[in-house]
Amino acid sequence: MVAESSLLTWVVFTPLIGVAILLFVKPEREELLRWITLAVTLFVFFLSLPLFFKFNSDTYLMQFTQKIPWIPGYGIFYSVGIDGISLFLVLLTTFLMPICILSSWRYITEKIKQYMIAMLLLEMGMLGVFVALDLFLFYIFWEAMLIPMYLLIGVWGGPRKIYAAIKFFLYTMAGSLLMLVAILFLYFKSGMNTFDILKLYEAGFPLELQIWMFLAFAVAFAIKVPMFPFHTWLPDAHVEAPTAGSVILAAVLLKMGIYGFLRLAIPLFPQGSLYFTPLIIYLAIIGIIYGALVAMVQPDVKKLVAYSSVSHLGFVMLGIYALNMNGIEGGVYQMLSHGLSTGALFLLVGIIYERRHTRLIADFGGMQKRMPIFGAIFLIVVMSSIGLPGLNGFVGEFLILVGAFQVKKIYAIVAAVGVILSACYMLWMFQRMMFGKLDKPENEEVSDINKRELAYMLPVLVLIVLMGVYPSPFLRRMDASVAHFIALSQGKKEVYAFEDKAVNPVSHLLGKSKVGKSDGRMRDAQFTMHDAGFRVKRNR
Amino acid sequence: MEPWVKDYIWVIVLLPLIGAAFNGLVGFKLDKKVVSWVGCGTVGAAFAIGMVAFFSLLQLSPQHRHLTNHLYTWISVGKLKADAAFLVDPLSAIMILVVTGVGLVIHVYSVGYMAHDKSYWRFFSHLNLFIFFMLLLVLGDNLFLFFVGWEGVGLCSYLLIGFWYTEKYNAVCGMKAFIVNRIGDFGFIIGIFILFWAMAGRGVWTLNFMELQENAHLLADVKLWGVGVATLATLFFFVGAAGKSAQIPLYVWLPDAMAGPTPVSALIHAATMVTAGVYMIGRLNFLYLMAPATLTVVAVGGAATAILAASIGTVQNDIKRVLAYSTISQLGYMFMAMGVAAFSAGIFHLMTHAFFKALLFLGAGSVIHAMSDKKDMREMGGVRKRMPVTFWTFLVATLAITGIPGFAGFFSKDEILWMAASTPNPIFENLPSLLWIVGFLVAGLTAFYMFRLMFMTFFGECRADEHTKSHIHESPRAMTVPLVVLALFSVLGGYFGVPAILGGSNRIHNFLAPVFGGGGAGHALSPGVTLVSTAAKEGAAAVQGSHGLEVTLMVFSVIVVLAGIFVANFMYRKHPDYPARLADRFQRVYRAVLNKYYVDEFYHIVFTATLLRINAALAWFDDKVIDGIVNGVGWITRRFSSVNGVFDNLVIDGMVNGLAESTISAGGRLRKIQSGRIQTYLYYVLGGILIIVMIRLVV
Q1: Mind telling me how many Å the CA of A3 is from chain B's nearest CA?
Q2: Which of A208, B318, B394, B472 counts the most CB atoms within 10 A of its CB?
């Protein structure tokens, strides 16, 4: 259908074609607008499926690459490609978009045309971030995606939408500006006249530079994740955003922060990253426990889920900073799991909100009686979120903890407390909403989930179970890329070994913060491009 | 020759899952008959295949009695590999038969018990799901899969305790069970990490039970935090067991679990799930043998739990709660057995207990059913004549649990007491005698509270109101047949393990010998074995020399049982006013025991309330301090930009107007941003990049 080399471009920019079509539709034709958008997002999803099935899991090299000179004078290319990490984030995005459109079917009643356009632009921006292999391009997409998200919250949001939208925007913007400065600095400092991310991996910047550069990137990404203590924009944004906005925010946008660490911050500045490793691990663990504890007493379901995200993403960061196969692969897997289960939670909250126009836990109680099917689905999603073995959440969480345990036992032990706490806040919330007597008269007439809602919940449920029971197809595709990432994070150029060592070489460094004293594998501050005896051949 | 059933072990596990899925998805549309046939049929078929597997196992020579059915690789990352694979060996074979056999009986019973429930289909779906997870737990050939089952049964327990969810109390009890279990699971998973880490450190990347057993000796000198890694891992596993099997300090959820329907209490909270901890120790016996300290903890913990729960059981008035404390107490016995490395004795008691305790619960359910759902024994009495089948079967079970010679409990319990008394402990010299004394006292207490229950429920005058009284009737056939079947097993079950001294050959002990070693079945113990097992062997040898002791102990325990029955008879049949007078006399003690020594209250104050207070404080901190800082920064920026804006207007008016305005509008004029200013802002940013790039190029 589409040549492999331009497949990614098609996937990314098809939403833009959708926008073009929508522009010619009259705003009054609401049903048509919805159907067109749904068709476009579905089309994008099917377009992205070959990425999964034709993916070669034997190599860490970028696949489905396309590289076209864009502004050659400055070494700026339109360069896209995916590896075993970004593949799944692309798929997660294309998978969730049609679901989001379906969930907005009746929820959004005003400015439908603008809404649909914003959604499509958002999709394009998100996909662009995950496939860009050129820093300049990456940044454009990164910023471009902010605007539709900002509008989603600011226009279609709840009562405090303006406050939440501004907070979201300024917070993220502050981070991205830091990143922008760092990107430009990088460009000139490297003297390589390139924005090519893969080439910059080899630049080997001096230690001090690495530390500052890493800090700039890390703050931008940590805000996005969000890591403690940069997380307070998230509950506000979630509470005010419309359902689809919350779903995208939780499932995809937060992952961009993690992805930023994986694609840029860590491999570009391995020594800088190592320098901050203990700090990041501490923050991640604080986030796990803190997020869970604060979640427990939230009166608003959406806030509760938002804080649970802080906790879950703490897990992801912990896994990634374990810097071994188990931890990182668990982290990437947990990203997907969290995208599904938290996305599903927001969808469910949206369903119940459409019926009752409240999200306060205290306003419910005994809903199981009125909504048995909804309750069953809700329970499965809750179980997935608290990591019940056999469902998706367990695989990632377990791998992360195994990985962390290999680094430092206490990390895993403290983090595992989060597993107990997640059961506490989720089950307590579920019990208060669904069980007990139906004693509020307003809840008497609430109808159970309808066919459209069932239609978009089912695919999510199927994946939740599938990813728990048979994770191999997912994990296998990550192996090579994750192994390569570990090599990069240690400043190596090539994957020397495909396997994990019982004690990772990096792990013994974690205790000490002085990176300079590391072993010979770490390049010293004087390293320049010409010292590199070899270049790794990369598929361009 | 490998038996054909080897490749079909997965069917045993899958059948109940199919039943659960079928009833869960379409059950609500179907007739109750179809639902019951699917529910019972799948478990029955699983039982049948389990039987085939069991007999195929018997055909093999003892050292080859293990069949592995590998399905697929579940998780594989780096060198970590977890398979979806099932293992049938003597230990799991017994467990399959107990789980599916008792499970089948209870399913049939439920057909009668739940007949009038609107959510009949949901009940059967959950019950089948439980059987599925329990089989996964029992059959999993590695710790990962075991853990899936371990948490899965917890989920089903949660669902079934809160089955009648419209009562908030039930839902809260379910939640309590799940969360307390999660605390145990936390310990368990740490145990997994420690074991995995230690094995990996020795180059063995596995958590497969057979491979672990082969390589356990490698861990002999591995230490973590100054403690032997085997000791540490097994201790953490025991935390998990304490949660799942309701031992001190995590037993508090089990009495509350009685909020669930009675068949659930019988199946999950008496016969099967709560014994998972015992099974786990049996499964990992080779590790526990390397950790004498852990074994001592297990034994002491078991004994302490046994006597604590038995003492609480003597004063409870809710018929199911008495049985719940009895279960905790009997589980304590099992752990005591495991703790003195008498693994086969522990599993033997697990099996007989499954029969008679399931029977006790089902009998109690039958009574509750007849008494219009009343559970307070003070409102019962004299139902013996109206419910003959229930009465006689209940009596059999009571005789079995109290350990009257000839009934199942006698053989299994006395083996435990004998092993406890005769296995020297390398750490505390006096422990064996102490364990025996506790076990002996518990036997007396058990006889007392069981016959107290018996007399209060079945004998004397009926104390119920007239309306209830008129409705008392024997239960339908679907309920009484299971009672009879279980009664049969409560007698016969004991004859699988008649000790040599009484002319038996202790078949179950020999059958389990390949798993537990030391049974003379030609199984070589791994070289890593240490103190206890040697001690146990020596002890066993010593004991074999003195059969006299075994007989003496038996006589003693029969005497104390009879004494317990006598006291119960005296207090609750002959002088019914006596208990009240006694309670009055020792009011404080009575209150403390009645209120379960206030452990629940203590936990609530120390843990739950404190946790919630911390949470509230953190939520305040998050809202006021962290977010306060964020908003504060925003406010300062806004002030600054408005000052800046004034300055800008007056001084460099017009020059950088756009830039300044976008800053100001970020603070104050929100509407403008929304109408599209942000895009403009982005253009500025992009423009800025280009300008900087150009400047750099020129310079």
Answers
A1: 32
A2: B394
